[in-house]
């Protein structure tokens, strides 16, 4: 499901973003999305929605580094990272 894209179409949502925790760069990008969402909420700008793609190693049945690589290469291709709605 493309939840972030769907949430960005809802009337009360003023900030929607998707990030991942698969590399240091993705971590920093996602941290920025979360900070922007919290700031939007504190400013009374409306509802914020942040989706974070991360690994569940217990259910992956792969080595942790292979799981992170799979998320970065396969999942992010289907669910792109970024801000989808920013009206704050």
Would you write up a description of this structure?
The protein is α+β, with helices and mostly antiparallel strands. It is built from four helices and three strands, in the order αβαβααβ. The protein has helices at residues 3-7, 24-42, 57-60, 64-78; strands at 13-20, 47-53, 82-86. The chain has a three-stranded mixed β-sheet.
Q: Rg, please?
A: 14 Å
**Overall strand count:** 3
Q: Decide which structural class fits the backbone.
A: alpha+beta
What pattern of helices and strands is seen along the backbone? HEHEHHE
Mean pLDDT figure: 91
Q: Looking across the biggest beta sheet, what order are the strands in?
A: 2-1-3
| Coarse morphology | elongated
C-alpha termini separation:
25 Å
Largest sheet: 3 strands, mixed
Strand content: 15-25%
Helical stretch tally: 4
Flag low-confidence runs: none
Helical residues, percent: 40-55%
Short description:
It contains 4 helices and 3 strands, in the order αβαβααβ.
Write the layout of secondary structure elements.
Blueprint: H1 3-7, E1 13-20, H2 24-42, E2 47-53, H3 57-60, H4 64-78, E3 82-86
Parallel strand pairs: 1-2
Antiparallel strand pairs: 1-3
Key terms:
three-stranded mixed sheet; alpha+beta; single chain; 4 helices; 23% strand; 88 residues
